[in-house]
Structure formats: structure tokens, C-alpha cells
Design a protein that fits this description.
205 residues; alpha/beta; seven-stranded mixed β-sheet
Length: 205
């Protein structure tokens, strides 16, 4: 029997993971264990000013509903303020390192570090900071081993929707389920490109 892998999918905000990788994670959840990590509270993400007051609670509830549909074993909410990861980069790295050390994931999903603003107009600083921090840990930053209780094998890394794609996953079998998952994020009014319901693209290494 094949080994069940531990897959850690990471997003800066609720809905990041699902937007780019829901189909692939649904596929992987059939044989492996899925875990989520969401770095910020998502307080600045809303499309209707009437829901701003309760947006943090709402987005966390939406994330939990989505995770249930994706058979997620556990979600870590780091609860950094939306838009403030750059101000908390060291603390972010320490929190991530703690979780990586405990979980020891075999596969990690996260943002690509390379030219996101060119690929799809992604200028969000939280995505950029998270991308670099996750790669520092996943690829074993030379400053990290001394802070780890025991060495961690390098996980395989899947980077969301990159400029240079080396893995294009056909998710048409999961299109309806992905749409159902994205509908959980009622505060966001998500309208992904049609192509994101056919293929999910990654840089894998």
C-alpha cells in the first residue's frame, strides 16, 4: 500500500488556496492527507461595505466550510493582520517553522516568488512575503537547521499559477466541486477565469 503523504497548502488569505489549487487538492485528497495554513485574518477582503464589521469572523467561517469540502484534516490560522506580513516577516518565519517542524509535510503548496505582477497583476505584498518565507523553509534556509529540533527532509513544492509552468493539471473532473468550494466565500464574490476550472498550473520542484 502506498504511503499516505502529508500535504500542506498555504495561503496568505482565506480563499487563496482554493482559487489556485482546489481541483488538484481534491484529487490528492483521495489518497493523501490535506492540511491548510492561512497566514492573515483577511480583514481587508470584502466586496460589500455592509459586511466589514464582521469580516474576520465571516472569512474564517467561509474558510472552514471550504476546508470541509476539501477533506482538510486541520487548518492553522496565524491571524496576522491583512496586509501586514511584511512588518512581521521574522515572526511569520518562526510560526511557519514551528508548524513545518511539527507536521513535516511531504508536499507544500504556496505562491510563486517570481514576477507575479507580470503573470496576473498580483501586487499584493502578503503574497510576495509569504512566497519567499515558505520557500526559505521548504528549501531549507541555511539559518534554519539550528532552530529545528531535528532535520526536516525537503518537501516537494507546488507554486501557484507561475510565469514558468512545468506542471499543468487537468481538473475538469472536479470543475463542479471547485465551483461549489469557491461559492463558500460569499464575502469575496469570486469570479475565476474559465481556464482555472479546466487546468491548474504550477511550478513544481
Amino acid at each position: 500500500m502506498a504511503k499516505k503523504l502529508k500535504i500542506l497548502a498555504i495561503g496568505a488569505h482565506p480563499d487563496d488556496i482554493e482559487y489556485y489549487a482546489a481541483g488538484t487538492l481534491l484529487q490528492m485528497s483521495k489518497t493523501h492527507d490535506i492540511y491548510f495554513l492561512v497566514a492573515t485574518d483577511g480583514q481587508d477582503g470584502y466586496h460589500n461595505h455592509l459586511i466589514k464589521e464582521n469580516i474576520i469572523e465571516m472569512r474564517k467561517k467561509e474558510q472552514k466550510a471550504s476546508a470541509k469540502l476539501l477533506n482538510v484534516k486541520k487548518i492553522w490560522f496565524l491571524d496576522f493582520s491583512d496586509g501586514k506580513l511584511e512588518e512581521n516577516d521574522f515572526l511569520l518565519k518562526m510560526r511557519l517553522l514551528e508548524i513545518f517542524s511539527a507536521l513535516r509535510p511531504d508536499i507544500v503548496f504556496s505562491f510563486d516568488t517570481h514576477r507575479q505582477h507580470i503573470v496576473h497583476d498580483d501586487y499584493h505584498p502578503d503574497h510576495r512575503i509569504l512566497a519567499h518565507t515558505v520557500l526559505d523553509i521548504s528549501l531549507i534556509d541555511v539559518t534554519l537547521p539550528a532552530r529545528m529540533k531535528q532535520p526536516m527532509p525537503r518537501p516537494k513544492v507546488y507554486l501557484y499559477n507561475p510565469e514558468k509552468v512545468n506542471f499543468k493539471n487537468n481538473i475538469e473532473k472536479y470543475t463542479l466541486k471547485k465551483k461549489e468550494i469557491l461559492k463558500q466565500f460569499k464575502s469575496q464574490n469570486l469570479e475565476p477565469k474559465y481556464s482555472l476550472f479546466k487546468f491548474e498550473k504550477f511550478r513544481v520542484y
